[in-house]
Amino acid sequence: MDHQRFGQWTPEGATFYIRGFGILAELVVSSTTRWNDYLMVGQTMIGVRTLNSDQTVSVRYFHHDHLGSIAVITNEAGAVVERDSHDAWGKRRQPNGDDDPTGSITSQSTRGFTGEEELAVFGLVHLNGRVYDPLVGRMMSADPLVPDPMNGQAWNRYSYVINNPLAFTDPSGYSWLSEAFHAVQDLFRSVPIIGAIVRIAAVALCGPGASICAFAMAVISSAAVAGITTGKLSAALQAGAVAGLTAAAFYGVGTLTTPPGGIQPFTGAHIANIAGHALVGCASAVAMGGKCGPGALSAAVPSFAGPFIKDIGFEGKLVAHTVLGGVASVAGGGKFENGAVTAAFGYLFNEAAHERTKAEVVRQGVLVGLELLNPHQDQTSNIQSLNDNFARVVDPAAIDTTSWTARFSSHATAIESPPIPDSDFAIKLYQDPTQGNVIAVVYPTNSFMHYLQYPLYLMGAPVNYWNASKFLESRGGGR
Predict the structure, then answer these.
(1) Structural domain tally of the chain?
(2) Which residues, at least 6 apart from 390, have a Cβ–Cβ distance to it below 8 Å?
(3) Quick one: 12 and 155 in the same domain?
(4) Which domain holds residue 313?
(5) Confidence band, pLDDT 50/70/90 cuts, at residue 178
(6) Residue 478 — very low, low, confident or very high, per pLDDT cuts 50/70/90?
């Protein structure tokens, strides 16, 4: 595992470390060979069983002080065979407290200060993550992070336990914040899909249409994941920059190819959207040191599928695009997590970024229809979104309805405009009998289509949204 040593070579010989599944052992190879099997109770080391090359076995038990340093070693019979002592900063000293200026003290165990391994050849203590020099009371390398910016002692990243060695120990060699950082780093490295999920989720939390928020989160999350995973600032800056450019490029593709009513299958807009996605996916992959093919596939395949899965909601479409992109990347010889992020960004910054609610599409259809019927009247502030089937009219008198026709039905009183120029649709205004609102819709002039849609409307289907979408599409997207 990271930050755990596996071997040590000194003039006296070599030591190999074996740790895992509750086992801690050492193979020491020198003029003679021996196995040290450490005896553990929970996380506490209570002794060592030594098997020598001549097949003799000895057992030594450790007795600790309040810091976990070994103070006394006893044998199998319980007799004291060694007494140890350390000064406040961990330097070995005589059992009576006298200094050892020549470093001549030896021990039957390599374990000593706070129960960690002592590198007697160098007079250092190995704290797993970093090496500590008890003579000067400082680490040999800096802690990657400052754990507590409000504590002046923490700003010296070489200091040992914020200069309070009589109260604290450092079993990992890192501050709690650095230890947490390395735990997350290990997780991101061993399970890369988690980093991909973090990046996608950070952008998705902004929701559809929140382009500025989504762009910022794409840059920040991509830089953070890359920085944590690699531990390199340059990699974080590169990932953030590429994510920002990728997001902007996908947004641009959406702006150029997506009509207000959405992309319909096998139309020119659909083909252009697929091609644009493939180009952006390729460029993004190459910019991050990958291959063009998997990047292009991971963006193009979900783009192709987009019109066929447009009615499964924001979350459903995000998951579908992510999975399709990951699978497409693997099929092209790339990594699932890379394709998943590319596809998710393709959806979030293209379709979702330009996605309008059904209510907004209904309102836009009514506005465009009224504009075409009477180009000299601006109804922008007069028409408001209401729901997936109707727009609300603030002031019905502001609409010129002199040439409109009265229509009557069992559920509402309505007036209908003449056909909107160059279309098969008209505008209808209803007096809502339940809330008192005057509501408006784009309505098909073909009576057969009306009666075909009526049962769907009674079942709650957003048929007027579909009508508005088809109308706007026929007008090239509206305004």
Answers:
(1) 3
(2) 362, 430, 432, 439, 440, 441, 464
(3) yes
(4) 191-351
(5) low
(6) very low
